[in-house]
Specification:
alpha+beta
Length: about 375
């Protein structure tokens, strides 16, 4: 543990400016990282502390170095380099070492951010607040302690050779002009987005019970209108809708009785409470216990996420802060535990990374299986 006496202005660390700043930043990081977060995983820590600010933008990354395992050598402290150069070099080193693209989950194209425009879309801007639901990010790569891994879009397939377009090793990338800012990866194309559904943005906690039903009804009606059919329980469209709504997250366990989709069906009046659930409780109390905090979870989901539909009728979820639009493409990138949304650039074979996403039916290696059968194609993706 770092002593506050050591980092006082008169202490040995305090006499050296950048060490003093890093020490204070590290103390701050240690005190705000939730206990259920894997503190040896850089991406996990950055997600958990995304709403914390640092006086020096580079310290958002440098401050966590002391918390990481000895194997994680990706963070190289160098205050002579710009924050943009530091973030990009770290991203490349991490992808090359881990053969994973988990760092891309920190990226989001929200359109119009002047600072982020200075970065390649594959480089996370650690000066910004977390782009989406942190629970989704933590679940996506099994970042909590233990081996629980709910998403595995690319299965166990690691990413291939990570390189900038001309194959250079990580460099300061000052200015990011030229071909060094283009990242080449292997990916499987899934489908094209044709519609984005935007639910109500915010709810008054005191009136959630009154505001949620019309909001969810509107969302269900939009789904029904698009597919030209009534949204009925026990249909594939209904399952895809509810699964995407909660991003595949069941609850605190794999219990098939009180999952979020089951709770949603009971709350909407689409289904009954399973007979085996607390049968001795009075009916009103039984319903209350079964639903639990569903309304609060649902309000959070509708506030922070949008659903989208693809040309082949797939349903998925995206952060409301993401600037994804109809015409964007969905891909499973090798080494990624979630699919990603990419914006094709006109007149070029390059893409801009929008954000990670949830896609029903493509979160557990289905794209890899389809590729092996020749149903989907694997190709090189250039991300600028």
């Amino acid at each position: 543990m770092i002593s506050t006496q050591l980092i006082s202005p008169k202490g040995p660390i305090g006499r050296i400016r950048f060490l003093e700043e890093m020490a204070y930043a590290t103390l701050n990081i240690i005190t705000v990282v939730p206990r259920n977060v894997d503190c040896t995983n850089a991406v996990s820590i950055l997600i958990a502390t995304a709403d914390k600010e640092a006086t020096d933008a580079r310290d958002s990354l440098y401050a966590i170095k002391g918390l990481l395992s000895k194997e994680d050598t990706d963070i190289e402290i160098d205050y002579s380099r710009s924050a943009e150069a530091v973030y990009s070099a770290w991203s490349l080193r991490r992808m090359r070492r881990t053969r994973s693209v988990d760092v891309l989950m920190l990226c989001v194209d929200s359109g119009g951010d002047s600072c982020t425009k200075k970065l390649p879309s594959w480089t996370p801007d650690l000066r910004r607040r977390s782009p989406a639901d942190s629970k989704f990010f933590l679940l996506a790569n099994g970042m909590g302690p233990g081996e629980y891994r709910p998403y595995a879009a690319a299965g166990d397939r690691p990413c291939g050779e990570i390189s900038t377009c001309n194959g250079n090793s990580p460099k300061p990338l000052q200015g990011f002009d030229g071909r060094d800012s283009i990242l080449s990866l292997q990916g499987i194309h899934i489908d094209t987005i044709v519609k984005r559904l935007s639910p109500v943005r915010s709810f008054d906690r005191n009136f959630i019970s009154n505001q949620l039903p019309p909001a969810t009804t509107l969302l269900e009606e939009q789904i029904s209108e698009h597919f030209g059919t009534t949204l009925l329980p026990n249909t594939e469209i209904y399952r895809a809708f509810v699964c995407s709504l909660f991003k595949g997250y069941k609850w605190h366990s794999d219990d098939t009785i009180d999952t979020l989709p089951n709770r949603y069906g009971v709350w909407r009046g689409h289904s009954d409470i399973p007979a085996e659930f607390e049968p001795r409780l009075p009916q009103i109390e039984r319903r209350k216990v079964f639903l639990g905090r569903l309304e609060l979870v649902l309000a959070t989901v509708l506030t922070n996420s949008d659903l989208f539909i693809t040309s082949n009728g797939l349903i998925g979820a995206i952060s409301r802060r993401c600037h994804a639009k109809a015409g964007d493409e969905t891909y499973v990138l090798l080494g990624g535990d979630t699919p990603f949304i990419l914006k094709p650039l006109k007149g070029r074979n390059d893409y801009r990374l929008r954000s990670a996403c949830f896609m029903h039916g493509y979160m557990n290696g289905e794209a890899i299986s389809a590729w092996k059968k020749g149903e989907l194609e694997l190709g090189t993706i250039n991300i600028v």
